């Protein structure tokens, strides 16, 4: 089992920045690829960033590429999502998730956190 706890969400104006953290416990986190997803009201949950087990490979959809950066510190069992140049359309609940393999598919992530709210004001 892997337990994931997100933090760092909040309310910021458009153009601002936030750094989300995902603290993991349980099995050795370095054994898992990690991802950040977001879900806005009435919408499906979508991937915004993924990182391989070593951290050497990352993936971003075009909607956040160049603005969001995912990183991990395996020694601290923590994954981060640095979000810059935030837009109102980035408003959503952000979830951290763990997968046995690097993936862009939500179905391949086995463990999920409870989510943290990010709200961007215009």
Describe the structure concisely for a colleague.
By secondary structure, this protein is an all-beta fold. It is built from no helices and eleven strands. The chain is 0% helix and 51% strand.
What would your notes on this structure say?
With 122 residues, the protein is mostly beta strands. 0% of the residues lie in helices and 51% in strands. It has strands at residues 2-7, 10-13, 18-26, 33-39, 46-51, 58-59, 68-73, 78-83, 92-99, 111-112, 116-121. Strands 2, 4, 5, 6, 9, 10 and 11 form a seven-stranded mixed sheet that branches. Strands 1-3-8-7 form a four-stranded antiparallel sheet, with no helix packed on it. The chain is globular, with a radius of gyration of 13 Å. The termini are far apart.
Note the main sheet.
Answer: 7 strands, mixed
Structural category is mainly beta
Annotation, overall tally of beta strands: 11
- Principal-axes geometry comes out as globular
Average pLDDT confidence is: 95
| Separation of the first and last Cα atoms | 40 Å
Radius of gyration: 13 Å
Q: Helix tally?
A: 0
Q: What portion of the residues fall into strands of 2 or more residues?
A: over 45%
Q: What percent of residues adopt helix (DSSP H or I)?
A: under 10%
One letter per element, helices H and strands E, the order comes to EEEEEEEEEEE
Poorly predicted spans: none
